[in-house]
């Protein structure tokens, strides 16, 4: 047995409590899938006894670090993202990160987002020979066609590939995305799925009073869409699918939960629908549970946290066979699946929610059962296992001194 492996075995008990630096440009209370997922991961790591340093942009002038046992925050300078002024892009922080990680060295650095702050974190990790994991959350290159800059797709794809290939490992939420990225030249890709809080999201939160506010009677079919209201989310397809439902069930209601740059235009064109705005926590959970089915018209997601939240709330989901839907939905069992990007099939399938009432009720019963295994504790433990493997492999490649995991405190 070589000395590096022997040293790692000697250190193995200490690996139960890792020191993890997480670098992200979005974090709660910001409302989006990446922020929510990162917040859950941080909470889970702390609950399992690991130390976490969170590096993120300052969200507002009054924003201050919130230290706690085993947790500290390093706030960087951030600038608003065009069209998403409530979100910040972190500026590069190479000098500050180098100082911080030279004094208090993490066992592993996890970079959540691919912005300037994330790029600088990867560069510092490589310079200090600290293992670094990146995360692929957003198909930015797929968004280009929605914003009139299709010519950017190829250079943006190359930019993302270069960024993620600089890390020891790139994490993705589905096996299908792993295969797609590997085919596109990504070298080291592993799957860690996302979880869902089945205590928060539950059919038990259904509210007759809330439905009454939407103009829905007990027998009214309410179709929900929960998402950021932005062009890449393909809301017009969701509206067209609902129109097919309403031709069969004229009293049906469409509920849209969320906010974003497309809300004003959508609401002006479709004032007949219920625009609930941004919701969170138990209020959001009640909005899910008080609907009857869920429409997911997006074709640009890497996962789609709202799918698991809808299923946990007892809502059958209509979606393209893509991302989380392809792995979690069984057609006719807990939702409806149609071929990827086939909008005609999507609209036709939506009408089944209105026509096949008994099947809809059966799918509602099975929806929640299909995600009960996706608790966050299991997801976080899977992540820790991957982190430990990356630390060990990195140490084997860089045997000696700090690269073996000794800390410079």
TrEMBL record:
Gene Ontology molecular functions: glycosyltransferase activity
Lineage: Bacteria, Pseudomonadati, Pseudomonadota, Betaproteobacteria, Rhodocyclales
InterPro entries given in the database record: Glyco_trans_4-like_N, Glycosyltransferase_grp1
The keyword Glycosyltransferase appears for this protein: yes
Keywords in alphabetical order: Glycosyltransferase, Transferase
The Glycosyltransferase subfamily 4-like N-terminal domain, residue ranges: 31-199
Natural source organism: Uliginosibacterium paludis
Entry's EC annotation: 2.4.-.-
Protein name as annotated: Glycosyltransferase family 1 protein
């Amino acid at each position: 047995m070589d000395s590096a492996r022997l040293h790692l075995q000697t250190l193995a008990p200490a690996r139960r409590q890792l020191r993890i630096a997480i670098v992200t440009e979005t974090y709660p209370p910001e409302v989006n899938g990446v922020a929510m997922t990162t917040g859950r991961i941080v909470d889970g790591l702390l609950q399992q006894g690991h130390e976490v340093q969170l590096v993120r942009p300052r969200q507002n002038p009054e924003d201050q670090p919130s230290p706690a046992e085993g947790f500290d925050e390093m706030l960087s300078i951030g600038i608003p993202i065009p069209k998403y002024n409530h979100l910040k892009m972190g500026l590069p922080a190479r000098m500050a990160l180098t100082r911080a990680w030279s004094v208090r060295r993490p066992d592993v650095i996890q970079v959540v987002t691919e912005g300037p702050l994330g790029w600088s974190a990867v560069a510092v990790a490589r310079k200090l020979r600290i293992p670094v994991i990146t995360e692929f959350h957003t198909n930015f290159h797929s968004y280009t066609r929605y914003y009139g800059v299709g010519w950017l797709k190829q250079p943006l794809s190359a930019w993302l590939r270069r960024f993620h290939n600089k890390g020891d490992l790139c994490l993705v939420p589905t096996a299908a995305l792993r295969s797609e990225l590997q085919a596109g030249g990504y070298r080291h890709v592993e799957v860690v799925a996302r979880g869902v809080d089945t205590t928060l999201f539950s059919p038990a939160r259904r509210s007759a009073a809330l439905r009454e506010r939407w103009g829905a009677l007990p027998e009214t079919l309410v179709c929900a869409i929960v998402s950021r209201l932005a062009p890449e989310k393909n809301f017009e397809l969701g509206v067209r699918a609902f129109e097919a439902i309403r031709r069969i069930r004229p009293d049906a209601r469409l509920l849209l939960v969320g906010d974003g740059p497309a809300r004003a235009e959508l609401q002006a064109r479709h004032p007949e629908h219920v625009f609930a705005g941004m919701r969170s926590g138990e209020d959001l959970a009640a909005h899910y549970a008080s609907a009857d089915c869920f429409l997911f018209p997006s074709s640009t997601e890497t996962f789609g946290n709202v799918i698991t939240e809808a299923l946990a709330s007892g809502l059958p989901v209509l979606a393209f066979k893509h991302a989380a839907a392809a792995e979690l939905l069984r057609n006719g069992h807990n939702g409806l699946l149609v071929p990827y990007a086939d909008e005609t099939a999507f609209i036709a399938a939506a009408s089944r929610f209105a026509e096949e009432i008994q099947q809809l009720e059966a799918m509602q019963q099975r929806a929640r059962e299909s995600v009960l295994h996706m608790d966050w504790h299991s997801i976080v433990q899977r992540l820790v296992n991957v982190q430990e493997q990356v630390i060990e492999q990195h140490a084997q490649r860089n045997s000696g001194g700090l690269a073996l995991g000794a800390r410079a405190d």
